[in-house]
Design brief:
By secondary structure, this protein is an alpha+beta fold. The protein is 30% helix and 26% strand. It contains 14 helices and 20 strands. The strands form 3 sheets. Strands 3, 4, 5, 6, 11, 12, 13, 14, 15 and 16 form a 10-stranded mixed β-sheet that branches. Strands 1, 2, 7, 8, 9, 10, 17 and 18 form an 8-stranded mixed β-sheet that branches. The protein has a two-stranded antiparallel sheet with strand order 19-20. The longest helix is centred in the first third of the chain and has 17 residues, at 61-77. The protein starts with a strand and ends with a helix. It binds flavin-adenine dinucleotide. Flavin-adenine dinucleotide is lined by residues 9-15, 32-35, 39-42, 44-48, 174-175, 205-209, 213, 217, 232, 271, 316-318, 354-357.
Length: 495
């Protein structure tokens, strides 16, 4: 008998989503990620749970409708990680007709089947606060709803849930070879330690690496490539404006760039679209991309941005399923699931493309493709909260107040950060601490040893980057010396 029913290569949102879905159906699941969970594209997105207003221009109605419906499903499943966000779209008649924009937004509202999120309205920028930071050449705007998510934590919590349902989650474990017979025999390299496991079904969810995995790990004979790789970069600057809404800025090349309130004191700006080839592990924003993003902000905002204002920048590689269309930004953000089954040989399912927004649906579809190899089971993830998400979709403030009563030594900022990250599981992070000192060493910002230990124990954190850039964004606030102290603490054997 094989060690596992289903093995997944890739610990991004799609791999962890598939592992969670399958583990919840009672299968024996293993997931292998070569680096940290969410170290690939899934921590480098714009972090929007959205239908993608822009895809309406490409007539991708089905994709938009399905993605829009996921907004409220995911908001209810992870109200700590996902929040509704209003987007202000200043009207520039030279770029898009206001009438067409209004019609597009009506369609967006209508396709969205909203119960929670408010619909579109028109703003007079001379009166509304949203007009204040903008240059006075913009007079009117539309305002509509989507959601904003902590993409990397969404990945980690899918992995946590999968593990709690019995899955073996193995970060820092690269699948170097997969030999196919009536079962899959996977050769693994876990930071120098070799391991071999077997599985009945294999899922290649390696995202932008999927075709590299196909060629080098599965040794598949190359066929026409299905993936077009496309790089996107973001910049983070000190907060550009005071209110809590985001802006959608139309660029002269017909793309849109978002400016989003980020981590309380910052604004996240992105993204670019640049075709990419090579190793997705080596991807970084270029000076030209940073100038492009600053230039678009400067067209809209009174404040002027330059590369020197950028406090953090990151890039990721989209794996776009090549449906034979033209330029990268016109290629559908749809996903494709390709099942390779051969008589007498274990099946292989390859995931191409996909979005953070649609990962849960993708996981259901992926399971459907291989369901006939396993006992019957039902879809279950639409109504199941992710770890810590078992509270009302609008309950973060109430949870924060409860935390402040329970641990009165916390500041409001600290309590809100913890409830946003851990939801109801904040109890497991703070335990019975009666004063701040009970949480142990402080590393800077409001990061304490108790939180770091929780992340090491429950969420596979091993290095300061795992804690500061994926399981939180405290990297924006810590100095290099503080990061080094954190690394030293994490390297010590636990007492
Ligand atoms: C700039 C940008 C902005 C985006 N914005 C949004 C957005 O706002 N909303 C949205 O819904 N989507 C957005 N997306 C899309 C979304 O981020 C991706 O579709 C999604 O993250 C892909 O997840 P994945 O799991 O397929 O890939 P990944 O997250 O890349 O995961 C694949 C993993 O496989 C691992 N791997 C590779 N080879 C091996 C091996 N041999 N063994 C073990 N592990 C291996 C890699 O290390 C990697 O972690 C954006 C993408 C980009 C690039």
């Amino acid at each position: 008998m094989a060690d596992f029913d289903l093995a997944v290569i890739g610990g991004g949102i799609n791999g962890t989503g598939i592992a969670r879905d399958a583990a919840g159906r009672g299968l024996r699941v293993a997931l292998f990620e070569q680096n940290d969970l969410a170290s690939g594209t899934s921590s480098a997105s714009s972090k929007l749970i959205h239908g993608g207003l822009r895809y309406l221009e490409q007539y991708e109605f089905r994709l938009v409708r399905e993605a829009l419906a996921e907004r409220e499903v995911l908001l209810r499943a992870a109200p700590h990680l996902i929040r509704p966000l209003r987007f202000v779209l200043p009207i520039d008649p030279a770029l898009r007709s206001p009438v067409l924009l209004r019609l597009g937004l009506l369609l967006y509202d209508w396709l969205g089947r909203r119960k929670i999120l408010p619909g579109t309205r028109e703003l007079d920028l001379a009166i509304d606060e949203a007009g204040q930071p903008l240059r006075n050449i913009f007079h009117r705007a539309y305002e509509y709803s989507d959601c904003f998510a902590d993409d990397a934590r969404l990945v980690v919590l899918n992995a946590v849930d999968a593990a709690e349902r019995g899955a073996a989650i193995r970060p820092r474990t690269r699948c170097v070879r997969a030999e196919r017979s009536d079962v899959w025999r996977l050769i693994l390299n876990a930071r120098g330690r070799r391991d071999v496991v077997t599985a009945r079904v294999l899922v290649n969810a390696a995202g932008a690496w999927a075709e590299i995995v196909a060629a080098t790990v599965l040794r598949q004979v190359p066929v026409r490539p299905h993936l077009l790789l496309d790089k996107g970069s973001h910049i983070v600057v000190r907060r550009l404006y005071e209110h809590d809404r985001a802006y959608v800025l139309q660029a002269a090349d017909r793309r849109v760039v978002f400016a989003i309130p980020f981590e309380r004191d910052f604004t996240l700006i992105g993204t670019t679209d640049r075709s990419f080839s090579g190793d997705p592990s080596v991807v970084a924003p270029t000076a030209e991309e940073i100038d492009y993003l600053c230039g678009i902000v400067n067209k809209y905002f009174r404040a002027s941005l330059a590369a020197a204002d950028v406090v953090w920048a990151y890039a990721g590689v989209r794996a776009l399923y090549d449906d034979g269309a033209g330029k990268p930004q016109d290629i559908g953000r749809e996903y494709a699931l390709v099942l390779d089954k051969r008589f007498g040989e274990a099946p292989l399912l390859t995931v191409y493309g996909g979005k953070i927004t649609t990962y849960r649906r993708l996981a259901e579809d992926a399971f459907d493709r291989v369901a006939h190899f396993f006992p019957p089971s039902k879809r279950w993830t639409a109504q199941s909260p992710l770890p810590g998400g078992d509270f009302a979709y609008d309950g973060v403030e109430a949870l924060t107040e409860r935390a402040l009563r329970r641990w009165p030594f916390l500041t409001g900022v600290h309590a809100r950060r913890l409830t946003r990250a851990y939801g109801t599981r904040v109890e497991r992070v703070l335990g019975n601490a009666g004063r701040l000192d009970d949480l142990g060493q402080r590393f800077g910002a409001d990061l304490t040893a108790a939180e770091v230990r929780y992340l090491m124990r429950e969420e596979w954190a091993k290095t300061s980057a795992d804690v500061l850039w994926r399981r939180s964004k405290l990297g924006l606030r810590l100095t290099e010396a503080q990061c080094a102290a954190l690394d030293a603490f994490m390297a010590k054997p636990s007492e």
